[in-house]
Sequence to fold (353 residues):
Amino acid sequence: MLSEKAVKMKINKLQKRILITLLVLCLITPAGILLPMVFNAGDAWGEWSAQTLKDLIGYVPKGLEKYSGVWNAPLPDYTLNTDDASVVHQSGYYIVSGLVGATATYIVMLLISKLIIRNGK
Amino acid sequence: MHIPDGYLSPQTYIPLIGVFVATAAVAVRKVKNEVSARNIPYLGMAAAFAFIIMMFNLPVPGGTTGHAVGSAVIAILFGPWAATIAVSVALIIQALVFGDGGITAIGANCFNMAVFMPFVAYYLFKILSHNPAKKVRVYIAAFISGYIGLVFTALLTATELGIQPMIASTSDGKALYCPYDLSIAIPAMAIEHLLLFGIVEGIITALIVSYFLKNEPGIIYAFRKGGKNENQ
Fold:
């Protein structure tokens, strides 16, 4: 009994440590927008907007034009305001997006797991 | 590596949605049978980790950006089927809420990063490392599985993009979807992942596997599965 409790405690401690690590990672996510700025790097390959693609090849492919507006995400590009030029503000928006997205992902995955896993071992 | 809407033709994205849905259905059954309820919190954290790690865009100086995915380490720790579900949840939320990756491309993106990548990485790790006591070998195997897993996934993504000009063009030779063919897509995606993003994925995989080996070795799926005592 005691050992079982000890195992459980240890697991909880590790899980708590992982959660704290994930939270810290969320808080430093702005590195993911600042580093590309510092090193003058643009979009990921193959992820250009229709406008950027037009600048690259001179036209917007017809099918791409048709599909590219098919979905309006509530928080596009992990920001609350795409027009805000302030790097500090964008860093803040990025952190908020990270916290919102990671929390939603965590909760959805927990719910799915609880629904499908029936194995109590 | 998140393919946006409009880069893939329906002839490409519809079959990939089918393949992904079928694989996800198998994954649900597998996870139901082989994952203990005690590990549920870990699965939630694994999915959240995949979400967060993909926000760390890394620059190729003066060029493009890219990122690690986390599928390799999740597959080694919790199994490739659990990784399929966890990374899919992250990718679908990225597409729906943040517009990162297209809605029509959800099947393709999930197949690439949440099915193909965890399975490549997992079986590579299994081939390279069997014995958790040989620690250095475990770390090297983990690095290689993350590195090769991401590079191969980049090549698969590049192939899906690069075949578009062959599938659909207008009569005057203009592309309908992704305008770059294989001769451009493959080298572009291969080089950046070989030289930078793959290395980062490898390091992350090795570091986290070593952390679990030290703190919670019993949980590591890759060392529990496939042995003589395996029950499922």
Notes: Residues 106 and 113 of chain A are 10 Å apart (CA to CA).
